[in-house]
Amino acid sequence: MSSPASVGDLTAALRRGDYLADRGLATAAYVALSLNRPLLLEGEPGVGKTEIAKVLASVLGRELIRLQCYEGIDTGQALYEWDYARQLLHIRALSERGLADDGAVDRLFGPRFLLERPLLQAVRAGDRAVLLIDEVDRADDEFEAFLLEILSDFQITIPEVGTVAATAPPLVVLTSNRTRELHDALKRRCLYHWIDYPSLQQEIEIVTVRQPQVGEELARKVVAAVQRLREVDLAKPPGVAETIDWARTLEFLGETTLTAEAAELTLGSVLKEREDIELVRDDLDDIIGPSSLTRP
User: Fold this and answer.
1) What is the pLDDT of residue 291?
2) What predicted TM-score, i.e. pTM, was given to this entire model?
3) What is the DSSP string of the chain?
4) For the segment 277-289, what is each residue's pLDDT rounded down to a tens digit?
5) Which of 152, 168, 195 is the last residue before a domain boundary?
6) Domain contains 105
């Protein structure tokens, strides 16, 4: 589709992609798209930060280019690298055929042997792409400063090739789980939005949209139980992704409601730490009980 004409249009488009965005998130995404501003999304793991970038790419008809950040990532892994193995093989082939000359070395550092990484791919694609910079908080300070420069200019200089500039910037979505504080300079460059856990009714709707085969009673019981679990002092509280996975697992097993027995057998779908499972196992009756259904 072409760029949405309003926040409502974007909200509807996201819903067609099975993503239910509240008005605040839809507004932030619409402004970022319209004003060519990077969008920084923070929130607990599993609340849909990465998913919205995927759905935006899908509904806008753009290529999704993902840069997964991690500790130790460097500019070469994010920008470009030279294919040294192919270069070596090429030199050997030229030597064996007696074709090596002074220009052969120069030709080794051309587009044929350039390995494009996500940032260079995004600059070349321009506004035909959505660039997802995922879990930027896992990268170090130096890489964060480098990202700030790229997001300001959307151009990359390759000494052997020249400068590659985007004709129009891609839509950039950065996500952070807040494992560390990001620098103010990066935050100032971006629009910011915090994605919170959804309300009871919102989460029920998300489950039924993403897994329409799940019955309403099962969806309601699962969501109520998950929201109760988030009130417990867990090492890793379940996100919306875990809610959907738990409901899907129970439906697959033929359950139409959530019982203590079914919950105990499938806790690994919603909790991912042994200590968390042990912590809640003795309180399952309270977690799935009727009182959880009345939680506002």
Assistant:
1) 41
2) 0.85
3) -PPPSSHHHHHHHHHHTT----HHHHHHHHHHHHHT--EEEEESTTSSHHHHHHHHHHHHT-EEEEEE--TT--HHHHSEEE-HHHHHHHHHHHHHTT---HHHHHHHTSGGGEEE-HHHHHHHHGGGEEEEEETGGGS-HHHHHHHHHHHHH-EEEETTTEEEE-SSPPEEEEEE--SSPPPHHHHHHSEEEEEPPPPHHHHHHHHHHH-TTS-HHHHHHHHHHHHHHTTS--SS---HHHHHHHHHHHHHTT-SS--HHHHHHTGGGT---HHHHHHHHTTHHHHHSGGGGG--
4) 999 988 888 888 7
5) 195
6) yes
